[in-house]
Design goal:
twelve-stranded mixed β-sheet; globular; 12 helices; 18 strands; four-stranded antiparallel β-sheet; alpha+beta; 29% helix
């Protein structure tokens, strides 16, 4: 079946909407505050001030714990954060103070950095006292008329339209908004994303999928992004669904080659003062990675928070996290609900290379996508402020011919070459193969060098383990027997396919 209308959720503002008042959080003497934080960061990192940038990513994640904030900027902007109503500055000051304590400690865990004194930290905190954090009204213009570049493309610099995508995210995740996919109810929650990344909403609790009598867990993710189209005078908001798979089995193992992300659905018990509009709580994400440790003279790979992540320290300080990555990986499903020792839910993302494998596919069926989009369009805020853009399929043909001809690589074996049964390996052939195998092992052993942060004991232990492994592999090397009729038949069938 060919769909004549391509109906992804692409939204544009309706015409003649009334402006609305929001509130932006300003820092009094912000230039002095920024300069002082840069000095502290430069001192901590042993850098010049010109080479230094303030570690705003961890601050962004920390402020995300306050659900009443719909959007968080950085220090360089006019407003640090936005909210439909003012939020008691005492709580925002408290979060920033926690962040200063954790980012600028007396004794950093990283040996390349140096400590910051208590007096210096107190000086930094003074810039973010309750009296220095001021809410100012900000009028959001729901205007369908936009400034354009010379080619007619919408120009969104300093435009309120970018803020609207964050307002949509807050509205879609309100506790009263529930969606349904395949008969299963879904609620979406916001998660942290940096200023230059699209917004993500994650469905929770995870959806159960039973495949061959085994249960796997996954969530639906909605990515919200503002886009401009060349030569088009208005911007669009695109909502794209995808699948996020969670580790679903006891004793799950991370990949050695890359880290994963753990998502915690955090909720501060600070009442209505930090959430006057009853927005949903938010996910904060933090990476988990395997680290090499020597235990009883044996090298082991232990999962831990990557680089002693600041957000995990903050969550621990606020009594929102009391578990370790090892405990989570021992039985990930136990942490999907908040009935464990933690006060919040935790999910660890499955990535290729982890074990056991996850059998849920990465895509979402078209029927489910259309159903979900229809429900999104019925949300009052979306229905009242936006209209859906439908893209029409157009048939086109191209009669041109490439000016360059490509000579593709020929197959290594001709299809006319007969397929013969493999004979048994001779002693001479085996000796030659064994010689090449030993040469490969010797090269691998020569490349085994001591690493920068590795002690001599750790290096010798790792080298000895490699030698033992090579010896075992060499013992298993045997003459290849003649190919059986069954094996030859399988090879012939595979060639026919």
């Amino acid at each position: 079946m060919v769909y004549q209308t391509i109906s992804g959720v692409a939204l544009r503002l309706k015409a003649n909407l009334q402006p609305q008042t929001y509130y932006g959080l300003q820092i009094k003497d912000s230039e002095e505050a920024i300069q002082y934080l840069k000095l502290l960061t430069a001192h901590r990192n042993k850098q010049s001030v010109d080479e230094t940038s303030i570690p705003v990513k961890s601050l962004y994640q920390a402020l995300r714990l306050i659900p009443g904030l719909i959007h968080i900027e950085d220090f360089q902007q006019e407003f640090l954060a936005y909210s439909p109503q003012t939020i008691n500055s005492r709580y925002i000051s408290a979060i920033i103070n926690y962040w200063i304590e954790l980012e600028f400690p007396d004794k950093p865990t990283n040996k390349k950095k140096q400590g910051i004194t208590a007096d210096e930290r107190e000086e930094a905190k003074s810039f973010f006292s309750e009296d220095n954090l001021i809410w100012s009204p900000k009028t959001v213009l729901y205007s369908s008329n936009f400034n354009t570049h010379s080619n007619g493309t919408a120009n969104l610099i300093n435009d309120d339209f970018i803020l609207l995508s964050y307002i949509i995210a807050a509205e879609l995740t309100k506790p009263e908004n529930t969606f349904t996919i395949d008969g299963q109810p879904l609620k979406f929650y916001r998660t942290t994303s940096s200023r230059f990344q699209p917004i993500e909403l994650i469905s929770w609790n995870p959806i159960r999928a039973t495949i061959e009598e085994t249960i796997y867990y996954y969530s639906i993710v909605l990515t919200i992004k503002v886009k401009t189209v060349p030569h088009q005078s208005y911007p669009e908001i695109h909502i794209k669904p995808s699948i996020r798979r969670w580790l679903s089995f006891p004793n799950s193992k991370l990949s050695h080659s890359h880290s994963s992300n753990a998502y915690i659905l955090a909720e501060l018990q600070w009442g209505k003062e930090v959430n006057p509009n009853n927005f949903s709580k938010c996910f904060v994400s933090y990476p988990i990675k395997k680290y090499k440790q020597t235990v009883n003279k044996k090298i082991q790979w232990i999962p831990d928070w990557e680089n002693k992540n600041r957000i995990t320290q903050l969550l621990t300080e606020l009594n929102l996290l009391s578990t370790t990555p090892q405990e989570i990986l021992s039985n990930p499903v136990n942490y999907f609900q908040n009935n464990s020792n933690d006060k919040n839910c935790v999910g660890v993302v499955f990535k290729e290379g982890m074990t056991p494998q996850h059998q849920v596919g990465k895509g979402l069926p078209s029927l489910n996508v259309q159903n979900l989009f229809a429900q999104i369009n019925k949300i009052n805020f979306v229905k009242n402020h936006f209209e859906t853009i439908s893209y029409q399929r157009e048939n086109c043909s191209y009669s041109g011919q490439s000016k360059q001809y490509f000579d593709l690589a020929k197959p290594k074996r001709s299809f006319d070459e007969p397929i013969v049964k493999q004979k048994a390996e001779t002693e001479k052939e085996f000796e030659n193969r064994k010689k090449r195998f030993i040469e490969t092992q010797e090269t691998e052993l020569r490349k085994c060098k001591r690493k920068k942060r590795e002690s001599e004991t750790e290096y010798q232990l790792r080298k000895q383990q490699l030698i033992e492994k090579q010896q075992e592999e060499l013992k298993k090397l045997k003459l290849k027997p003649e190919e059986t009729d069954e094996e030859f038949g399988i090879k012939l069938d595979n060639f026919k396919v």
